[in-house]
Amino acid sequence: MIPADTFPKFRSAMPFWMTLLNVPLAVTGTILGGIWVLLLPVYGFVLITLLDGLAGLNEENADPETAEADLFWYRAITLVWVPVQFVTLFWMIWYVADHRHLGVLEILGLTYGFGVMTGAAGIVYAHELLHQKNNLERWLGDLLLSMVLYSHFRSEHLLVHHLHVGTTRDAVTARYNEGFFRFFPRVLMECPRSAWRAEVAMLKRRGASALDRRNPFWRYAFLQLGMLVVALVLGGWYGLMLFLLQAFFAVWMLELTNYVEHYGLTRKYLGNGKYEHVKPHHSWNAAHKVSNWMLINLQRHSDHHYKPDRRFPLLQNYGADEAPQLPYGYPLMATIAMVPPLWRRMMNPKVRKWRAMYYPEITDWKPYKKGQHPEPAG
């Protein structure tokens, strides 16, 4: 018999399952082509933003001591999504490669839409999974990352970003006045190297070489090669092209999100290679209800940095007196970030206000803007 309190828990978790609506939209766009290929990005950016405006903010907090058993239906969507994304993605590759019914613009629109799905949903879910302690969830996170050829994100995020956010060592902390189109190629070059160095340094501390079998880059390479082979078998070179296009757009979505999350927010340099501890005001937050459903509370980003292994339904909201707030949810902010002059006009005054609020004693911000301080010691 199902316990009586199961159904209220199921209902409360259901809004976070809205990611599954991507699947019928993806199938419709794949089969019909034409303007229907835009269903996924319209859902992910336009509809979610409109619903944010209607639904408003959610500033309520769950009890952070909630038992793991009570989170079953929240955790379930992150587990279910892995096979769902795999089947949907590779079905699309097989179908389009087999039918050859789409023109160039339709292919670009469709793979962009799939990149929105595998990036704004798949990588966000991977992010949640890789932060957990059990091997099953971490492996599922690795599978999602391998579907977009960005497996090193696990190492970079856990070993670099969370330790060094807001400092010169963290590539994905966007600098003040740095446009997204400068930020994107920079992180594509710096993050894989940074992730590799972090893993090699960890192995060295254990007395092992860079090529030791415990280096997760072996696993990353195996999983990514496997995904490439599946795409090639199902769709030939045409299918491989489709796979690579969606992977590129997925990474684009991820790095847009990274750009928004910490733009211009730096930790105070204390001298001798030391920086202040990470605090809530080192992340941009958004309490917009519907985009937080879609992004499983990723926008409660300050609390995520405070408690990285806290599961998403328990992440706490921070008010404007504790952490900087974005005027809109991530989907709209990411869209604005792709128009650098508009982004700077909106966000630079907010960064300057943040500086005056938290660091009135700092009079020279040039070393922070230019990343000229030494990297953190250790």
TrEMBL record:
It is a multi-pass membrane protein. One of its GO terms (cellular component) is plasma membrane. Residues 108-334 form the Fatty acid desaturase domain. Pfam families: FA_desaturase. GO terms for molecular function: metal ion binding; monooxygenase activity. It is found in: Cell inner membrane. It comes from the Bacteria. GO terms for biological process: lipid metabolic process. InterPro entries: AlkB/XylM (IPR033885), FA_desaturase_dom (IPR005804). The chain crosses the membrane at residues 21-51, 71-97, 104-126, 221-254. Keywords: Cell inner membrane, Cell membrane, Iron, Membrane, Metal-binding, Monooxygenase, Oxidoreductase, Transmembrane, Transmembrane helix. The keyword ATP-binding does not apply. PANTHER family: ALKANE 1-MONOOXYGENASE 1. Belongs to the fatty acid desaturase type 1 family. AlkB subfamily. This is Alkane 1-monooxygenase. The lineage of its organism: Bacteria, Pseudomonadati, Pseudomonadota, Alphaproteobacteria, Rhodobacterales.
